[in-house]
Amino acid sequence: MSSSRRDLLKLGGLSLATLSQTAYGAPTRSHHAVQTLFDVRAFGATGDGKTIDTPAINRTIEAAAAAGGGTVLFPAGTYMCFSIHLKSKVDLYLAQGSTILAADGPKPGDATGYNGGKYDAPEPKTAWDAYQDFGHNHWHNSLIWGEDLHDFSILGPGLIWGRGLTAGHGNHVLPDGVGNKAIALKNCRNVIFRDFSILKGGHFGLLLTGVDNVTIDNLKIDTDRDGIDIDCCRNVRVSNCTVNSPEDDAICPKSSYALGYARSTDNVTITNCYTTGKYEIGSLLDGTFKVSKLANSKEATGRIKCGTESNGGFRNITISNCVCEGSRGIALESADGALLEDIAITNITMRECTVAPLYVRLCARMRGPVDAKVGTVRRVFIDNFISYNSSSIQPGIVAGIPSAMIEDVHLSNIYFHQVGNAPKEMADLIPDQYEKSYPDPTRQGNFPAHGLFLRNIKGIDVSHVEFALASPDPRVAVWAQNIQGLDLFRIKSPAASQGNFLFKEVTDLQLSGSRGVKDISLDRVDRVL
Fold first, then answer.
1. Residue 104: in which H helix or E strand, if any?
2. Does one domain contain both 42 and 180?
3. In the chain, what's the furthest Cα-to-Cα distance?
4. Do 197 and 69 share a structural domain?
5. Is the torsion defined by CA of 434, 436, 440, 442 positive or negative?
6. Domain span holding position 153
7. 343: β partners
8. Do both 226 and 105 map to the same domain?
9. Are residues 346 and 483 in the same domain?
10. Spatial separation of the C-alpha atoms in residues 280 and 136, rounded to whole Å
11. Which residue among 1, 32, 134, 354 is the one 20 to 30 A from 277 at the CA level?
12. pTM here?
């Protein structure tokens, strides 16, 4: 038995005594075997990068499932594939040097893809397709997919390369045979993704919808759309992942209507991750780190975001110990009726943010059933948050709408360093409420603050915050409107002759310990301080 295979067995907790194999690697199960190894080459896969290996790989997976479970091994090689079908109790192990390569699908005007092959057709249209983009409504038109499965994993240091996948945009229907996701799961449980890399994952590197008890650890994703989407999922752990996604979001919990009903995304931890929109696709994985043309522009994305699809809700979410570089920052959004509550964000360092470093938004886009009610955002705690050298003039934003106010927000130990130098006329802006618009700071125009823009909130505590500017800025540091209960403590900002705090319709204000302004306690205030 080879040393690599022996090492794999050790990783899986197996002893050599529990496994017997033929010389070719095709498995036989001994009486005491707990698991068996299934080598895709023993079932006819070539790994030559030219032959379509999908039939052989799916045969291997089916054989493992028929045996009661097992590990499907991809030795070093390039396996060109169309749709691979996952099975319960079957793990895929991508050995070092192995690549699962997405074959080219049908092109416009052609009936077939590479060597006459196609990806599985998307599922039939449903009544709720209009509530989210095409890619969110379908799973089968993917490189690797599974539905109604349990207890399986994809492991190992190999690569999934979605070269033949389309990135897809908006709600445009894709023709049958075209693939647009690297990995897609629907209604599954007990799933592990660990150690592999994804290059160009199509619309989604990972699209998980209605998937519970998930571990996502040590993935490296270098892609042109979303990296990891966690939609309508519960009990999810994302850790130690690196995602470069210059044209879309990096790690994105969602709660869409794709299952045909509103289901919340609950109990999610995102920790020790690095996200960016700064680099050319592929240059993160190959270590060259070539700066993208999108870098330092508002088009660069690469952020961690809850939303925008938000029909169900987000509950018990923590984001901690993450580094964001050249990205749009961190966003929490309830736009379609979702509850967004009990959110903790801690220990975040951010550099070269391309738009608002922090964006907390409650609005009424209401892309969903007509009887849905506007959602809620409450109990959001953000602590130890550093944003340095932001290339944007947009401030941090926490904004509800007059009919639906954000509740109970705590911001502490924050440092925002912005480029500054906004045009003088921005200081006098009163931005539109954009109550029914797509929630994104790039679509809301300019703001009259360089530090924090606060609007339509019941209860917000801001303490130990410093705002810094690379160049002088005519706007106030904090602009607040329609706030019921605002505590500002130890706010440090560049001196401004016109004042640094602008209040409109603010009740129950406590301002203390801040340089350049006396401590005050007011029942109501409508002026600049």
1. none
2. yes
3. 83
4. yes
5. negative
6. 20-306
7. 317, 380
8. yes
9. yes
10. 25
11. 134
12. 0.93
